[in-house]
């Protein structure tokens, strides 16, 4: 049944968050008294080989005290990552991007260092991005959503269907600047259309794949396209675009053809536009919570000595605690 599939996918995109055993096996990554990441046992074993950079203990992983500013931290960690990449230890480093993300507890907090984008999932670094729902009120098709098919050459999720525009916040760009930059690069959307860009909130998920952890916060925008506007890729990272009538959207995004970590953005759109309601999904309340995982419980000022840095179940909303599952393998990224 469709409601069961919706909830199954919502749990899948939060497979790390809902795996209590896996959560408890991780150690918090602490920088300047802020928890900025989570370290899995597999990554911990590798970091212990670099004691001049990482101080690993039963309670946490911290950077060496000599690394006390943005530049020294960024340089030292990059050297470790280059060594791990040379040794081909982690699959995610094969997709090295030469693009950095800021490392911080929240979007409003100062950046403590920067890190190669492909490596952030190894450290459970909080990732921020922008997604645009490009929709059309078509005279024949009715409400419809534009989707893109990602280029096969993309290092992650190559060939999958995706939101019409989406991208991560790179060093030096604000949320709004990223929205405009990605809209032009990915879909060739001109400024006269972008002036109608509407911020509608965010979605937050905590996913794990064989590449690592993805604690994602996506800032979401809705944008109505003129009926005669057709997106056109500018940077070679999109294979094609497709206009999908709203009645056909849900089966597509729930299939393995759609990028898992973009699914919450579309589900949020469908909830807000009444396509998913309590009749079509009796667990709508729980679905809404799974679209807005409380990442602030992990990424905040740290209290060392309080265990692995994961808050006890009573701090979480009761429906989410009830969803927590026993240990399971990370999701294959191509699923």
Q: What does this entry show, briefly?
A:
Residues 115-268 form the Nudix hydrolase domain. The protein has 335 residues and is an alpha+beta fold.
Structure notes:
The chain is of the alpha+beta class and 335 residues long. The chain contains 10 helices and 13 strands. The strands form 3 sheets. Strands 7, 8, 9, 10, 11, 12 and 13 form a 7-stranded mixed sheet that branches. A 4-stranded mixed sheet has the order 2-1-4-3. A two-stranded antiparallel sheet has the order 5-6. The longest helix is centred in the first third of the chain and has 17 residues, at 70-86. Residues 304-315 have low confidence and may be disordered.
Q: Any key phrases for this structure?
A:
335 residues, alpha+beta, Transcription Regulator spoIIAA, Nucleoside Triphosphate Pyrophosphohydrolase, 2 domains, 10 helices, 26% helix, 26% strand, globular
Might you state the CATH topology name of the largest domain?
Answer: Nucleoside Triphosphate Pyrophosphohydrolase
Using the coordinates above, name the CATH class of the largest domain.
Alpha Beta
Describe the sheet with the most strands. 7 strands, mixed
CATH superfamily of the largest domain: Nucleoside Triphosphate Pyrophosphohydrolase
* Number of distinct helices: 10
Which structural class should the secondary elements be placed in? Answer: alpha+beta
Could you estimate the helical fraction of the residues in percent? 25-40%
> How many DSSP-defined strands?
13
Pfam families: DUF4743 (PF15916), NUDIX (PF00293)
Domain Nudix hydrolase: 115-268
Protein name: Nudix hydrolase 24, chloroplastic
Keywords: Hydrolase
């Amino acid at each position: 049944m469709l409601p069961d599939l919706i909830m199954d996918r919502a749990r899948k995109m939060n497979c790390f968050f809902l795996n209590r055993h896996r959560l408890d096996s991780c150690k918090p990554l602490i920088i300047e008294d802020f928890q900025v990441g989570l370290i899995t046992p597999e990554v911990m074993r590798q970091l212990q080989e670099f004691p001049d950079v990482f101080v690993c203990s039963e309670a946490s992983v911290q950077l060496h005290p000599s690394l006390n500013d943005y530049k020294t931290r960024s340089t030292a960690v990059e050297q470790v990552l280059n060594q791990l990449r040379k040794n081909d230890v982690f699959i995610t480093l094969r997709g090295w991007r030469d693009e950095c993300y800021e490392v911080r507890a929240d979007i409003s907090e100062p950046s403590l260092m920067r890190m190669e984008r492909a490596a952030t999932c190894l450290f459970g670094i909080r990732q921020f991005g922008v997604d645009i729902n490009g929709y059309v009120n078509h005279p024949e098709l009715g409400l419809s959503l534009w989707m893109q098919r990602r280029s096969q050459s993309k290092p992650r999720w190559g060939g999958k269907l995706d939101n019409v525009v989406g991208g991560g916040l790179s060093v030096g760009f604000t949320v709004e600047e990223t929205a405009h930059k990605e809209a032009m690069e990915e879909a060739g959307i001109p400024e006269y259309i972008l002036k109608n860009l509407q911020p509608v909130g965010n979605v937050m998920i905590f996913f794990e794949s064989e590449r690592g952890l993805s604690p994602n916060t996506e800032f979401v925008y809705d944008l109505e396209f003129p009926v005669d506007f057709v997106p056109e890729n500018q940077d070679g990272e999109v294979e094609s675009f497709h206009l999908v009538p709203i009645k056909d959207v849900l089966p597509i995004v729930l299939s393995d053809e759609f990028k898992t970590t973009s699914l919450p953005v579309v589900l949020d759109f469908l909830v807000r536009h009444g396509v998913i309601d309590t009749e079509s999904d009796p667990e709508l309340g729980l679905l809404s919570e799974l679209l807005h995982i409380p990442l602030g419980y992990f990424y905040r000022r740290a209290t060392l000595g309080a265990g692995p840095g994961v808050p006890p179940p009573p701090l979480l909303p009761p429906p989410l605690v009830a969803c927590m599952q026993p240990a399971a393998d990370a999701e294959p990224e191509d699923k």
